[in-house]
UniProtKB/TrEMBL annotation:
Compositional bias annotation for Basic and acidic residues: 262-274
A Pfam family assignment: MucB_RseB
Organism listed in the record: Salinispora tropica (strain ATCC BAA-916 / DSM 44818 / JCM 13857 / NBRC 105044 / CNB-440)
Protein name from the UniProt record: MucB/RseB N-terminal domain-containing protein
Domain MucB/RseB N-terminal residue range list: 99-231
InterPro entries named among the record's database cross-references: LolA/LolB/LppX, MucB/RseB_N, Sporulation_related
Length: 371
């Protein structure tokens, strides 16, 4: 186990894990769950012993020229049977079932993520200052030119690779986290150590986070989240194939298909902490957001105005009023509202127009609502 000197800078000073940290946003987790098992197990390799502290240093000092590979994401959050109230084509869709992504990375200004599913393909491509978001199903594309010195964040609001997910989890390493070494494994044909993060706070619904780290390249190959009381991952990201050769430059050139509808926009997708102005964006498309707490029990609070609530009339958007009507009513000295629960995430929609979300117990949400 690693002591209290585990640095928060393990995220900010680790270039290998910073290349696509996604937008932090309220995660809408509604839909139907799917049965989930761990990725097919391979024989446990025999590796020289390494401590948790050594593995953290490995992650911090990892360097690579580029990579490409296939990532499989699986989620089984114990969602209630209210599928159909959310569009299948959106960030929330990544929180149910199984998904396949192709990823390419070549330096800090060339990245590509392709989500391939039965409805088509969605690509996020950065090539220098040019950023493209393309949807094959709707044959639409959004193009942005980044200002000098700005980084592009994955707008999908969900981690797309084990590197992204690990970066977010490692940011929570502090005295509230027990860090240990798990069993060695073989992931995508590579021998790997396993770093285990266990929250000490009983209010967290996360039991453990397990990160398989390439024994040679020191990059995360698999990321698993186990909910309290669960013996299978509630959320899992893993490379099934990885190549550390630098991808060809053509992979980052977007050639719009025939008749594609292209929308030009200014600026880039920014992380909330990079935004110059607090509160809603200029286009009014997002509610006010704030966080309460730190580490594993951080709670996100959003103010939802009626004008900002998506309705069934909006294309590919769930009707929040219809959804709320199917959730159990709760009340207390904090007020009243509706409670949404999964094995890993709890959300409280209050009658006074707040959405409070976290990987915490309902009691923690009530405490935040009371404040």
């Amino acid at each position: 186990m690693v002591g209290r000197r585990c640095p928060m800078s393990v995220l900010t000073s680790r270039p290998a894990l910073r290349w696509l940290v996604p937008v932090a946003a309220v995660v809408t987790v509604i839909g139907g769950g799917a049965a989930l098992g761990r990725f097919a197990a391979e024989a446990e390799p025999s590796l020289p012993p390494r401590s948790a502290a050594q593995l953290l240093v490995d992650l911090q000092t990892a360097r690579f020229e580029g990579l490409s590979g296939t990532v499989v994401q699986r989620a089984d959050l114990g969602l209630p049977p209210i599928a159909g109230l959310v569009a299948a084509d959106g960030p929330a869709s990544l929180l149910t079932g199984s998904h396949t992504l192709r990823v390419w990375h070549s330096g800090p200004d060339q990245q590509r993520i392709a989500l391939v599913d039965t409805l088509g393909q969605r690509d996020f491509i950065r090539n220098g200052r040019d950023v493209w978001l393309w949807n094959s199903r709707t044959n639409t594309a959004t193009h942005r030119v980044l200002p000098e010195g700005k980084e592009a964040a994955n707008p999908a609001e969900m981690p797309a690779t084990p590197q992204e997910a690990a970066a977010q989890a490692l940011a929570a390493v502090d005295p509230t986290t027990e860090v240990s070494v798990g069993r060695s494994a073989t992931v995508a044909g590579r021998d790997a150590y396993e770093l285990v993060l266990t929250p000490r706070d009983a209010a967290s619904l996360v039991h453990q986070v397990r990160i398989a780290i390439d024994a040679t390249a020191h990059l995360p190959l698999r990321f698993e989240v186990f909910a309290a009381g669960g013996d299978r991952p509630a959320f899992e990201l893993a490379f099934t194939q990885i190549d550390y050769a630098r991808p060809d430059a053509d992979q980052f050139t977007f050639n719009p298909p025939p008749d594609v509808q292209v929308t030009e926009k200014k600026g880039g997708w920014e992380h909330p902490e990079q935004s110059e102005q607090p509160g809603p964006t200029n286009d009014g498309g997002h509610p006010d957001l704030r966080t309460v707490g730190t580490g594993w029990t951080t709670v996100l609070v959003a103010k939802i105005d009626e004008v900002e609530r998506p309705t069934a009339a909006a294309e590919d958007a769930p009707d929040l009023d219809l959804l709320a009507g199917q959730l159990p009513a709760v009340q207390g000295d904090w007020g009243s509202g509706r409670l949404f629960r999964t094995d890993l995430v709890t959300a409280l929609l209050t009658d006074d127009g707040r959405l409070i979300v976290g990987a915490v117990s309902p009691e923690r949400l009530y405490e935040v609502a009371r404040g």
